[in-house]
Structure formats: structure tokens, C-alpha cells
Amino acid sequence: MCGSRSWLLLSRVAESVVFVANDLALLTSWHDSWSDLDVVIFGLGKTGFSAADTLAELGARVTVVTDSADDLHLSMCDVLGIDVVLSSPESPVPDRISAGTFDVGVVSPGYPPTHPLITWAGERGIPLWTDVDLAWRLRDKVGPPAQWILVTGTNGKTTTTQLVSHMLAHAGFRVAPCGNIGVPVLDAIRHPEGFDFFVVELSSYQLHYMGPIWPQSAVCLNLAEDHLDWHGSLEAYALAKAKVYANVSVACVYNKSDEATLRMVELAEVVEGARAIGFDLGVPGMSDLGVVEGVLCDRAFLDDRHERAIELTTVEELAERGLDSPHMVSNVLAASALARAAGVSAEDISDALALFTVDAHRHQVVARYDDVTWIDDSKATNPHAAEAALRAHQSIIWILGGLLKGVEVDGLISGYASRLKAAVVIGSERQVILDAFARHAPEVPVFEVLATETSDVMPRAVEIASQLAVAHDVILLAPAAASMDQFTDYAHRGDLFVKAVKAQIGGVDE
Q1: How many of the other CB atoms lie within 10 Å of CB of 332?
Q2: What is the 3-state secondary structure (H, E, C) of 87-111?
Q3: Domain 135-353 falls in which CATH fold?
Q4: Is it the case that residue 21 has pLDDT exceeding 80?
Q5: pLDDT score at 486
Q6: Does 16 score more than 70 pLDDT?
Q7: What pTM did the predictor assign?
Q8: Strand, coil or helix: what is 314?
């Protein structure tokens, strides 16, 4: 599995940025001396504050540069003695930053490689870490370090992270889901009780800047066009995702239906003895997990895998938990592979799945009324995620639109036009979507929501969809776009959709 492409290629931020300087290489433990370190942190959101708080606790001298910060974080930084410098579009690298002498920078997710602060750090030769790199160095704060399991992919990351964590917890392990899922890794490593496992969800932003760590196992669930405006190209996006497999010691789990993830594993530099474990919805090979006549099977983690497979659960049983759509079954298989690699029994996985509930806004059935099903998949923030939702249904009234992030929807519309009864388009980039329907699916009725006030968008979209629906239709919110043009985030968008649905059908849920 060791590939010809070197780790240096996969871990590069930019040609001018070096991750680990000689004097920083000695800082590999919470118990090392961090007090002489001058650190600049880019951003004061949840991740940036966790880094600032941690380094202040270690005694380092901490400066934060940010273009925005809430009052709570500002007041806490003041109490902790952390210097906060506000930047602006006119002064993205303030004088107080450019005049400083810093040993290392910690970059929050979201700062693109073209950002002036990143360029400035590269020109000054300032090494850049992520909060994940810092957490890896500090992971021994509470007893023996936890094992790390990494999860990434264009779609399904959060659900898979939750599934793995749920399986491990059910088996009796102390486990913390963390990272891009919402709990900073640095908060997890400082928990006073400690953990056996961290299941770390990683975005492409985090992976782009992340230096070498040594996880037990990892998965890239899938790869499709996303965040191209940030990464600059699909190749750069794929290189970032591929870093999840570097230095894996037990299992590189990949999607057999997505050749890009197999290629990542083939090129990965891993610890000797690490295995490649595939998953898909077909019959499993000898080192795979798959599905046989509706039964989810493990043919990778048993001694006599040449002759038989172990049953984990069935699609019918998953349906009782809302996990039977194709993309959800794939997530379950990927999570099961990671859990099995960590030592969880097939019985514990089966029992854990019987108790698992999908989070809101992830292909969530929010109402059934007059034989019409309303589904909130607001988390489908790109075409790949929306495709998974469309693939699961027939006779769909599709609510879509928002910020497309430089990604085209033409293939999605042409590929699923036969399943669409109508489309209701929202968002600031409506015209792009309307034009795509005109080119590729002129036979599909398309309705445009012209409302500009956030509070009016979903009631109008739901009203239109309701007027179009008849028995056995599915009204699907799967925007294929980001939400920040009209909503705070995807959850806000989904919440308003659910509220509008309940108002439309009079609060009835059958």
C-alpha cells in the first residue's frame, strides 16, 4: 500500500511554508516546556479559541488575529491574557501582526491558502499548524494517549463519525467524537477523565494544512466536487482528502464504488501491516464489507473470511432507524469497518445500530400527511450529497438552491430529471439553476421563490411544493448548495423548513 507519491507532496500547504521547524520538533507532549513559545492564531471562532485557550494554559505567549469575534470570546481572551488584534479587508495583516516575531502560527479552518495572512506567514517562514496538529502533540495530557480514528469525505462525515463513536461506546470504550463535528479536538484531549478513542471528523480545510499524525484507522467516504473556490481545483481538493490515510497503523477503509478513494489508499504511506478494507453495497470480497440479499456482512475481520462472512444487520432493520437509503447504508458499512478495526464485536455493532438515531437535517423525515412525505436534507450542501438524496426516491418535488461554491449542478439535474415532478428554486444563485434546468430538463416544471427576507423563503417554498404534491410524492429539501446567502447555516435553513412544513399541514404528523 505504500505509494510512489511522497508524504511531502500530500502534506504541503504551499511551497514556501514548512510545517515543523527544528526547534518545534521537541514539543511533542503536554509536559514539555511551551512557555517560551510566541504563537499567532488566525481566527477566533470555536477552533481558534480552543487553540488560544490551550496554549495560554501551557504558558505560551498568544496573539490572535481575526476579522470577527463574539463578545464572550473577547472577554475570555482578556481574562486569559490573550492579545486579540482585529483585521479588516483594508488591513488583513495588521501592523501589530506584521511587526511581531512569532515561532509558529495556528490556522483555523476556513482561511484559504490565498489569504494574505497565509501568504505573509509563508514569506516570513513561520510554520503553520492546525488545531489537530497541536492536539496530536498534546494528546498525553490525561494518562495514556487515546487512539485516533479519522473520518473525512465530501459527504457523510458527521453521520459516520457519530456511528463509529456510538458503536465504540456501546462496546464499553470511552470515546469522544470531535473535530469538524463541532467539538474541537483540543477540548477533547483536555477532558479530565480521558478517552480510549477519539473519532476525529476532518474537513478538507483542516487536512490541507495538517501535518503528519499517526492514526489507528481512517476513511475517506467519497470524493466529489466541493469547495473548489477554496482549494482552487479538484486535484488540490483530492490531495487534501488523501492525507487522511497517511501513517495509518491498522486499517485504511475506502469506498469500492469510488475509485478516487482506492487511489488514495494505493498512494498512501502507511505503517507496515496496515490493511486496506473496502466497502460498498455489493457482495463483499475477502477484505471487504458489503451487502448480500439485504444483509450487511463483514468479510474482513474474521479468520475464515475465505469461506464465510459475519452478519452485522439487515437493510430491513436499518429502515426502522431511518438508515436504509443507499448513502446511509454505505455510512453504516464504513463505520462498521472502522469499529471492527478498533476491536468492536459484530454483536455490539448490531446492538448499537438498533439504538442509533440520525441527526436532524440529514435526510430526516419530518412529516407524512395525505400520503406525501416531507424530508429535510438541508445538510446536502453540495451536488454529491443532493444526489444521494435524489437517488433514494421517486416522484420528487425538489427544493434546492443557495450558494453553489463554484460547483455546477448540470449533471445532477440531467441525471435525475426523470425522478422530478417539479423543482422549487431558492437562494441567491437561482439563475444558474434555472438556466441548468432550461438546458437539461426543460420538461420539469420549475418554480422560483423570489422572497428576499429569510423568514419568508421557506414558507413560500413549502407553499408551492404543497400545492404540487399528490399521494406518494416526496417533497425533498436537498439544496445542493451552501446556506449562508439567506440563512445562518444549514441547520437554520432546515429548522425553518420544518417550521414551515408544520405550519402548512397544521402541525399534523402521521
Answers
A1: 28
A2: CCCCCCCCHHHHCCCCCEEEECCCC
A3: UDP-N-acetylmuramoyl-L-alanine:D-glutamate ligase (3.40.1190)
A4: no
A5: 92
A6: no
A7: 0.75
A8: strand
